[in-house]
Each structure stands twice: as structure tokens, then as C-alpha cells.
Specification:
Number of strands: 17
Order of helices and strands: EEEEEEEEEEEEEEEEE
Structural class: mainly beta
Distance between the termini: 38 Å
Length: about 220
């Protein structure tokens, strides 16, 4: 079971100075959150001023406001009001600008190479009575509330296509496997597994990000 602690993520300023990004996970692992040398990336950004978004040619994006009230996102000339916890999908190639009518916001970004990977974001409300499992190919980010995570029952089916590598670590290194529940802080991320799917229990809201490899028909 691997937990990515938000407090340990390195903030990287945007090239245009309008915000800061903290990368949670990417594949392949990039030297910088800004270099784009990956097929998919999950990150959290602080947006402090209106302005243009960076373009990501060949990519598809899903953005979700996770703190603050409203982001006005204009994509190829069409304005989209993005409210908190409502994921929005758009092309990474599109010309995009933002406005902040209610002040600064924080957003969750999932960017995936079109035609190779598909990213999804779901917002769920946690329960103290029923744990939410986090499977292989998923990341679960605690958005608000109080929650803990524990390893689930061991299974034998393992895949290496998603956020966890074949050894269960997002960055390809071995990870310690706690046997008891571990408290999560706000914006901490749990890496999914099909070997012992972590289970999140508590009160609050959780973002579940799924990264699926796109299957191609044989030529």
C-alpha cells in the first residue's frame, strides 16, 4: 500500500506565472511537472490569477475544481463555468483561458495522451460504514474530511498499465506495506492495487482517478 503525501510534493511555478502545480503521479516519470515527457499525469494546481492555460498537444484533459467556488474556463472561444467537484473534459490542444470571478481556486488535473490512455475523475462521498476500495490503475485523493486507509484482502491479479507499477509503487520503487489503517491528510493520494486493494474509510469527499490504457484492434 502506497500513500503519496501532498505535503511532500514539490510546487512548481507555471511558466506564465499564473499558478503553481504539484505533480502527484505520471507515467513515465518525468524530471519536471512541466516538461511533458509523459503519457499521463495527475496533478493539483493552485490558480491565483486569470490568464491562458498551457497547451498540451496530443493530450486530453479532465479538470476538477477542488477548492474555491468557480472557475470560468474558455475553451476555443466557448465559456464553461466550472463549479466545485464537477469534472470537465476538454482537448489539451485547445486554446484555453481562465477567469476567477470568486477568487483563487485549486484544481485537480488529469492529462492523458489521446488514443493511448483515457483518464477519468469521479467524486464520491465517503462512508464510515463501507470502505471504498482503490483498484489497480486508480488513484484516490482525499479532498476534504477525515479518513484512513488500510490494505484490503490479498488477491493475485496484477496489472502494470495504470498509476502503480508492477511492484505497486507509482514511481517504480518498492513501497512499504502497512498492515494497519493509516490516517490521510487533505489531498493525500492512495495508489490503487489489485494485489491488496487499499480501502478508504471515513467522512468527506474522495476523488477517484482512473487511468485506462486504450486497446487497439490488431492490424
Amino acid at each position: 500500500m502506497e500513500i503519496i503525501r501532498f505535503a511532500e510534493l514539490k510546487p512548481e511555478p507555471w511558466r506564465n506565472g499564473g499558478g503553481v502545480t504539484r505533480e502527484i503521479a505520471s507515467h513515465p516519470k518525468a524530471a519536471s511537472a512541466q516538461d511533458g515527457a509523459w503519457d499521463w499525469r495527475v496533478s493539483i494546481a493552485d490558480v491565483g490569477s486569470a490568464g491562458a492555460f498551457s497547451t498540451f498537444p496530443g493530450m486530453e484533459r479532465v479538470i476538477t475544481v477542488i477548492d474555491g467556488e468557480l472557475l470560468l474556463l474558455t475553451v476555443d472561444g466557448e465559456e464553461h463555468p466550472l463549479e466545485k467537484y464537477r469534472p470537465f473534459r476538454f482537448s489539451g490542444e485547445a486554446a484555453s483561458t481562465s477567469a476567477l470571478p470568486t477568487g483563487d481556486i485549486r484544481d485537480l488535473n488529469v492529462i492523458a495522451r489521446a488514443g493511448e490512455f483515457k483518464g477519468y475523475t469521479s467524486i464520491i462521498e465517503l462512508s464510515k460504514k463501507r470502505a471504498h476500495p482503490v483498484f489497480e490503475g486508480q488513484l484516490a485523493v482525499l479532498l476534504e474530511g477525515k479518513a484512513s486507509v488500510s490494505p484490503g484482502a490479498e488477491t493475485s491479479d496484477v496489472s502494470a498499465d495504470g498509476p502503480a507499477g508492477s511492484n505497486g509503487s507509482a514511481d517504480g520503487t518498492a513501497a512499504d506495506v502497512p498492515t494497519e489503517s493509516v490516517e490521510l491528510g487533505r489531498y493525500d493520494a492512495v495508489v490503487g492495487s489489485d494485489t491488496r486493494s487499499p480501502e478508504v474509510l471515513g467522512r468527506g469527499f474522495l476523488a477517484v482517478i482512473s487511468i485506462d490504457r486504450v486497446e487497439h484492434a490488431p492490424s
